């Protein structure tokens, strides 16, 4: 059964480790992540962006697939199904369709509107026992069209949003989605420390987990990060393994074109990536 992310993240914050959110795109992704979580005896959060939700034929289809797998694969570790960067309407829809956790990304609204909308999402989520992630932070440091710094949140605004009763808070500390540019300045630990000081026991979320050096991730966890989001890294691993299979001509040998064979190396590559991250985040054996 799906669970909200609340308990797993409260434990992670207290135990100074982080739970990984791995974004899913299809059946292979979902199966790979769930099997790895079970093998590692680790809690896990399956992230679904609005775009991925549409691609997979709607949140109801995703919830059906995930619930089916939990049962058929005998998954006993805690699993949350989480809407990633949801708009207000998408958050309502995901809650309706059986997600156990939602992110309402109101970071592009002014702080007042962000607060109003977040409050309403929390009210509905509380009725259903669903966890809520909110985001604070504006895009910073742009030069020649290249974003060098990423988002840096205002610790006071973080406190305001945290006090609304969200389950976990995403705060920009120089992190960005996708592969980091060469001139990336790294995470802003000074701001992270201030956010943690202001928000106390609130589990903090680090987005853009792909490509952040292991030492920085570990340090962020010591400063209150309890959830790390990873998406692009699984995509790169899947693409590289699939490319290797095809370039080696394996799809043209025997029944190598069978999708169950063609997609197997990529699926294994996702498993290896997820395992490596769970070890880095310290969530192994924390189910
Ligand atoms: P990456 O794609 O950079 O790993 O970011 C994932 C993420 O933060 C999803 O919200």
Automatic annotation (TrEMBL):
Binding site for dihydroxyacetone phosphate: 178, 208-210, 229-232
Cofactor(s) it depends on: Zn(2+)
InterPro entries: Aldolase_TIM, Class_II_FBP_aldolase, FBA_II, Fruc_bis_ald_class-2
Binding of Zn(2+) 2, residues: 105, 135
Pfam families, A to Z: F_bP_aldolase
GO biological process: fructose 1,6-bisphosphate metabolic process; glycolytic process
Binding site for Zn(2+) 1: 85, 177, 207
GO MF terms, alphabetically ordered: fructose-bisphosphate aldolase activity; zinc ion binding
Active-site residues, as the UniProt record annotates them: 84 (proton donor)
E.C. code: 4.1.2.13
Keywords, in A-Z order: Lyase, Metal-binding, Zinc
Enzyme category, top tier: lyase
Cofactor note text: Binds 2 Zn(2+) ions per subunit. One is catalytic and the other provides a structural contribution.
Residues making up the signal peptide according to the UniProt record: none
PANTHER family the record matches: D-TAGATOSE-1,6-BISPHOSPHATE ALDOLASE, D-TAGATOSE-1,6-BISPHOSPHATE ALDOLASE SUBUNIT GATY-RELATED
Name of protein: Class II fructose-1,6-bisphosphate aldolase
Source species of the chain: Candidatus Acutalibacter pullistercoris
């Amino acid at each position: 059964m799906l669970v909200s992310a609340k308990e797993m993240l409260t434990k992670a914050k207290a135990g100074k480790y982080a739970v990984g959110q791995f974004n899913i795109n299809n059946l292979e992704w979902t199966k790979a992540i769930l099997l790895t979580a079970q093998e590692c005896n680790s809690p896990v959060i399956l992230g679904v962006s609005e775009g991925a939700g549409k691609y997979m034929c709607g949140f109801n289809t995703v919830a059906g697939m995930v619930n089916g797998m939990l049962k058929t694969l005998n998954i006993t570790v805690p699993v949350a199904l989480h809407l990633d960067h949801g708009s207000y309407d998408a958050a309502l829809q995901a809650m309706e369709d059986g997600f156990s956790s939602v992110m309402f990304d109101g970071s592009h609204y002014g702080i007042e509107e962000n607060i109003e909308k977040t409050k309403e999402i929390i009210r509905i989520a509380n009725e259903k026992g669903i966890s809520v992630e909110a985001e604070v932070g504006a895009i910073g440091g742009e030069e020649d069209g290249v974003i060098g710094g990423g988002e840096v949140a205002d610790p006071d605004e973080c406190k305001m949003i945290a006090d609304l009763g969200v389950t976990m808070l995403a705060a920009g500390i120089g992190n960005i989605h996708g592969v980091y540019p060469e001139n990336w300045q790294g995470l802003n630990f000074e701001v992270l420390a201030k956010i943690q000081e202001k928000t106390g026991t609130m589990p903090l979320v680090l987005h853009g987990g792909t490509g952040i050096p292991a030492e920085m991730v570990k340090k962020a966890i010591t400063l209150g990060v309890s959830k790390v989001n990873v998406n692009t890294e699984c995509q790169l691993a899947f693409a590289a393994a699939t490319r290797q299979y095809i370039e080696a001509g394996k799809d043209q040998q025997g029944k190598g074109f069978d999708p169950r064979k063609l997609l197997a190396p990529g699926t294994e590559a996702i498993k290896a990536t997820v395992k490596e991250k769970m070890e880095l985040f310290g969530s192994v054996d924390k189910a």
